[in-house]
Amino acid sequence: MALKDRVPYGPKGPLGVLVDPMTWRAAPYLLVTGFFGLGWFLVLGVAIPAALTLSVVWVGLPLMMATVLMWRGGAMLERRLMRVTLGVKLPDHYRPRPEHGLGAHLRWLLSDPATWQDLSYLLMLLTLGALEVLLSFWMWLATGLLLVQPLLALLYATTGFSSDLMIDDWAGACVAGLFGVVVLVLTAYLVRGMAWLHGTLATVLFSGDEAGRLRASRARGVDAAEAERRRIERDLHDGAQQRLLSVAVDLGRAQAKFDTAPEEVRALIAQAHTGTKAAIAELRNLARGIHPAILSDRGLDAALSGLAARAPIRVDVSVELDERPPAAVESIAYFIVAETLANMAKHSSATEASVTVIRDRRGVVVDVWDNGIGGAVVSPGGGLSGLADRAATIDGVLVLHSPVGGHTLVRAELPCEW
């Protein structure tokens, strides 16, 4: 995730800092994050050595797997907390899970760079969180004591109650209250600064291997494009080219017998005519698979409506775009919907589906939903993995939500500038 993708704060200036909801969301998080860090340090400080010690016997392997899954779960929870409190969007970038096998799962966990990024963040949380807790606690304590001084002075004037933490003089208490407003603004700026620092460090740690993943996805996209080129060449050679060659042979035979066997010539010409129509149909289907003409001529709305009309179930299509996106975005969106609807027809047992295309501030968002049985997974070499690679060629992201027994949602976020 790039730093530019972080959710921005609200209005600037002292008043803007105080009224910005994100400031007050970040404040409680910064007051408790150090305790989270201490808890994870203690838990991992016991679990990891125990798992390593017991790894000499078989019981250490499931314990190590449970420990890794535990800290990955903790990091996932932290990312969601930071999204709500700090406005930092950090997706889960884990490699696809293997189908079966304890050893395969353990290698999957330990070889994934995201696993060690999660551990680094949780260990960093102890030091960073302790600093945030101490600064936040003392600044909020000082702010609170200064702001309540006028109320404490009023309490002293009416009841005679006194304390070492209060100013008995009314004028001094009012000055302290005004100074408390200044400290409140400074505390809000400190909260914002610590939130920015925390979010930036988390972004660096959690996204350290994102460039490598993007390069790998783009490499797979290039490989897929090369495989598609070979498929088109093979289809042309085995299909339309052979039909056209047969047409040429028939016409040659008809020319040779034009004067001697007119009835046989008619049959050969009719056969050539049929072969020509079949070759045209194959070329049309091949061109539609490369880039449908309706997409170029009339845009996504018409092209996706055509896909929906050919689907075996009812598919609602909603395209809300003020202007046409770049051709690459249109093409990728079209083929993502086409592949997803094809998979839905084969595997989901759905009775209805919907396709929604909208434009947000980052680009085009494509949602394909169905009410099928769920359970779809992104597996290496699978259709959904290929769609993710296709989206990654323009820095896009494909997200799958498909719980077993539930509905399936495939979302593609495709930037219009890259």
UniProtKB/TrEMBL annotation:
Give the enzyme's EC designation.
2.7.13.3
Naturally occurring in which organism (per UniProt):
Nonomuraea antimicrobica
> What residue ranges are annotated as transmembrane?
29-48, 54-73, 119-141, 170-191
**Domain Signal transduction histidine kinase subgroup 3 dimerisation and phosphoacceptor spans what residues?**
228-293
Name of the protein in question: histidine kinase
Specify the superkingdom. Bacteria
* Domain Putative sensor: start-end pairs: 29-205
Gene3D superfamilies given for it?
1.20.5.1930, Histidine kinase-like ATPase, C-terminal domain (3.30.565.10)
